Amino acid sequence: MEFIDLKTQYQRYKSEVDARISAVLAHGHFIMGPEIAELESVLASYVGVKHCITVASGTDSLEIALRALSVGAGDEVITVPFTWISTAEVISLVGAKPVFVDIEPQSYNIDIAQIEAAITPYTKAIMPVSLFGQMPDYDRINAVAAKHNLPVIEDAAQSFGATQNGRRSCGVTLIGSTSFFPAKPLGCYGDGGALFTNVDGLAEKIRAIRTHGGLKRHHHPLLGMNGRFDTLQAAVLLAKMPHFQNEVEARSRIGARYSSLLAGHCTVPHVVPGNTHVYAQYTVRIPNRDGVSAKLKETGVPTAIYYPKCLHEQPVFADGQNRWGEFPVAEQASREVLSLPMHPFLTESDQDKIVEAVLSVLR
User: Fold this and answer.
1) Quick one: which of 118, 151, 250, 347 could link to 174 by a disulfide (CB 3.0–4.6 Å)?
2) Which of 283, 264, 295, 263 is nearest to 334 (CA)?
3) Quick check: is 28 in a domain?
4) For the chain, how many structural domains are there in total?
C-alpha cells in the first residue's frame, strides 16, 4: 500500500507527461525554456492573479519573497512553530528573526487572536502557513496586517488548490508561495515552487532575484540567487494541470469519507466553514500516536508524522528565547498528529482496509 501513490498517477497521465518531456528534449531549452512562461500563465490564471513566477523549490520561493520585501538583519517575521523547517529557516537565512505564534487546536493554523501581541517595531512581515491543505482566515489576518502596515506572505506549500470563500490559495495575500515537491497536491518530479502576486513591481523584483538579481544578462541591480525552475519540471506540471482540479475534488471526497468513518474514534480534521481542504496530508490526532503508528506499520498500513517536533525545539532555533510550554497547542499537536495514506487514487477498498486497521488498533 502506498502512502502517496505517484506511480498510479504517472500511469494515468503517461502519454501526456511523456509527450511534454519529449518536446523539451527535442527543443533543448532546458533552462527557462518556453514551458516556463506557459506554465506561469496557466498557474496565474488558475489562482486568479496577474503574476506567477516559478522558482527552483518551495524553500527558495519563501526566501525570494522575503528578499523581495527587503526583509533582512534586525527584522522580525511572525510565523508558526508547527510547520516544516523551511518556513522559519528562510527567515533566518535572510538575517531576520522568526517570531512564533501558537496555532489553533482544530485547524492547526496560526491563532489569529495572538498575532497582534507578537508585533513589535521590528516586525517586517507576517508569514502564516496553510497547513495540511486548508487556509487560515486571511480576511482577519490581512486586517491585522493592514492595521500595522505589514505585508502578508501565504506559505501555501500544502494548500495549492484549496479555496476560502471562493478565492484560491496563493491569491489572497500580497504574496502567495507554494511548492511542487512530488508529494504536494500539485507535484513535479523533483524540486520546484512558485510565487504569486498582483503587484507588477513586486513581480519584477521577484523575477530578478530568481535570476541572480537581474532581468537582463550581465546586469545585476539586486543581490539575487540561482532560483530558476527547471524546464523539464515545468513540462511535467503542464501535463498534470488539466487533471488537477479533478484530483482536488477526489482529495476532498476521500478526506470527507475518512472523516465519516473515523469520527468518534479519533480526532479527525476540521474543515473550517468557507474553506475547501485539499488534504495534502490526512491528519488525525491520537493520544498514543507512536504506539498506534507502530501497530499500523505491522499491519502494512504506512503512516507519517507531520511534525514530531515544533520548530522551537529544533537545535538550530534553541536560542533560549523560546522554551517548552510557550506554545502549548502546537506542542500537544506535535505529540498526537498522525497522517494516513492520502492521494487522489486511493480506492474505497484500500481506504476501508486502512480504517479497519486504525479501528482495530484503537479498540
Assistant:
1) 151
2) 283
3) yes
4) 2
pLDDT band at 22 (very low <50, low <70, confident <90, very high): very high
3-state secondary structure of 200: helix
Q: Which triple of cell numbers denotes residue 327? A: 506554545
Domain that holds residue 14: 6-101+109-238
Q: In this model, does residue 184 exceed pLDDT 80?
A: yes
- The Cα-based distances of 121 to 75, 97, 116, 148, 302 in angstroms read 9, 13, 12, 10, 46
89 closest CA partner among 330, 350, 311: 311
Please report which confidence band the pLDDT of residue 210 belongs to, taking 50, 70 and 90 as the band edges: very high
The residue among 229, 231, 223 whose CA lies nearest residue 205 is 223
| pTM metric for this prediction | 0.96
Greatest Cα pair distance in the chain: 66
Specify if 1 maps to a domain.
no
Q: What distance in Å separates the CA atoms of residue 125 and residue 77, rounded to the nearest whole number?
A: 5
**Residue whose entry in the numeric block shows the C-alpha cell 517570531:** 99
189-to-253, 306, 335 alpha-carbon distances in Å: 25, 21, 31
Q: Are residues 186 and 116 in the same domain?
A: yes
Q: How far apart are the first and last CA of the chain?
A: 23
User: pLDDT confidence of 363, banded at 50, 70, 90?
Assistant: confident
Q: Are residues 271 and 316 in the same domain?
A: yes
pLDDT at 145: 98
Model confidence at 319: pLDDT above 90 = no
Provide the pLDDT confidence category of residue 318 given band limits of 50, 70 and 90.
confident
Tell me the torsion sign for CA atoms 316, 318, 319, 324: positive
Burial profile 322-359: b = 16 or more Cβ within 10 angstroms, e = fewer? beeeebebbbbbbebbbbbbbbbbbeeeebebbbebbe
Q: Are residues 263 and 357 in the same domain?
A: yes
